[in-house]
Amino acid sequence: MSRTKRFILPRLYFLKLALAKAKLKIGIRLGLVRSLMIMPYKGFGNENEIHFVVRVIRDRGIGISQLEDSSWRNFKKMYKRFMTWQIPGARVKATFHGMEQVSETDEEGYAEFHLPITASFVPNGLWHEVQLSLLDQIIPKQGEVRAENRILMPSGNVEYGIISDIDDTIVPTGATRIWEMLKTTFFGNAHSRVPFPGVSAFYQALAKGNDGIESNPFFYISSSPWNLYDFLMEFLNVHDIPRGPLMLRDLGLSREQFIAGSHSEHKLLQVEKIFEIERHLQFILIGDSGQHDPEIYLQVIQDYPGRVKVVYIRDVDPGRHAALEKIKAEVRALGVDMMLVTDTTEAARDAISRDLIVDSDLFKIEKSKSLDEKKED
Fold first, then answer.
1. Residue 117: CA count within 13 A, CB half-sphere
2. How far is CA 179 from CA 173, 175, 184, 185, 186, in A?
3. 229 domain-assigned
4. Domain at 231, CATH number
5. d(CA 274, CA 196)
6. Angle at 261 between CA 166 and CA 18, to 5 degrees
7. Nearest to residue 318, comparing CAs of 358, 352, 290?
């Protein structure tokens, strides 16, 4: 960090916090903050501990989207997502099967939990509930503020885990074209944004694996901000894409950065966090060629030998083919195949050849892809 940046950055961040504090104080006094909410972000864990994050903010009252929502209505909802009133210094209690932990929100309203699990707890199924409650009185006539979070705990009959990017991997976003990405984000909704043809059926097949039991866990990583969390989770639900924890990032001014850390740094950190916590699993890695996913996954394979079964990269940037061939060769030398695919069925056929999914799923994927393509027309 340069001397100028070291001098300016902490002062700008202090000013940002002071303005946010003043805004919240005035908002409460004027009655602009009438109700609060705990925003839970799905977590994950192992037999020893669970990890998750929550955020305490003003209740935005966004609700779910509808297919017929206008561009203006979509824009208003997106505006609410970004114009947040975060609540710093608030204590949140998490309760999980008799265990409790209290964590205090930071300057941006986030609270992180690392909750140990007692030896008597035996996981039953993939998903488990954590009860959340706000302990502090922040606004007049607040009442109880509660929420429930869902925690993914892979156990039992699991063949492998899947880590997938979202932007230009699951759904076309134009992540490499800023204006197109902004237009898609702010004026669309979970219904109007459509996945690449066949993605839903392919991911459902991976969730079932080769034994037909839907027990293989999904983890999603995106460089989008946490403000879009509910939007992206609704998108996955609307399009029948297997649910899983979604790791996003906090954009904007912080103690260490003016805007945000790089896509590569964020994604590598989150993938390696998953590998560290779910250390009993091997993984399939899925990404695209537009935002350095191949380079990130190469680093993961180097750092965690024997943990990656195969890598699927959606080809969205033909200009990178020469660089990708070099990366593929490096990955192959480490004993892993990186497959550059043009569509979902190509990845599905390769997955069948590796006994990752069953033959009968190919028909479903091809049919789904065909139907999705007709919808686009």
1. 17
2. 10, 9, 9, 10, 11
3. yes
4. 3.40.50
5. 25
6. 115
7. 290
pLDDT-derived band at 377 (thresholds 50, 70, 90) equals low
Residues 162-205: tens digit of each pLDDT: 999 998 899 887 655 566 666 677 777 888 788 889 999 999 99
Q: How many residues does the chain have?
A: 377
Q: What's the pLDDT tens digit per position in 148-163?
A: 999 999 988 899 999 9
HSE-up (13 A, CA, CB side) for residue 231:
24
Select from 212, 260, 222, 259 the least CA-distant residue to 244. 222
Torsion (CA) 116, 119, 123, 127 in degrees, nearest 10 = -10
Q: Is the distance from CB of 277 to CB of 247 less than 8 angstroms? A: no
Residue 80 CB neighbours (<10 A): 14
Burial bucket for residue 317 (CB in 10 Å: 0-12, 13-18, 19+): middle
The phi and psi torsions of 147 (rounded to 5 degrees) equal -155, 165
Same-domain pairing of 146 and 248: no
Q: What is the pTM of this model?
A: 0.91
**Given this model, what pLDDT does residue 68 score?**
80
Buried b (16+ CB within 10 A) or exposed e, 300-316: bbeebeebbbbbbbbbb
CATH number of the domain within which 80 lies: 2.60.40.10
Pairing of strands 146-152, 127-134: antiparallel
Report the C-alpha gap between 328 and 334 in whole angstroms: 10
Give yes or no for a contact between 113 and 51, defined as CB atoms under 8 angstroms apart: yes
Question: What total of structural domains would you count in the chain?
Answer: 2
SS3 letters for 221-286? EEEEEHHHHHHHHHHHHHCCCCCCCEEEECCCCCCCCCCCCCHHHHHHHHHHHHHHHCCCCCEEEE
Strands 283-288 and 99-104: unpaired
Contact 92, 132 (CB under 8 A): yes
CA distances from 125 to 92, 113, 118, 174, 243 (A): 26, 21, 17, 37, 14
Q: Are 255 and 12 in contact (CB under 8 A)?
A: no
Contact 310, 300 (CB under 8 A): no
Domain assignment of residue 335, yes or no: yes
Instruction: Report d(CA 154, CA 149) in Å as an integer.
Output: 16
Residue with tokens 């896509």: 263
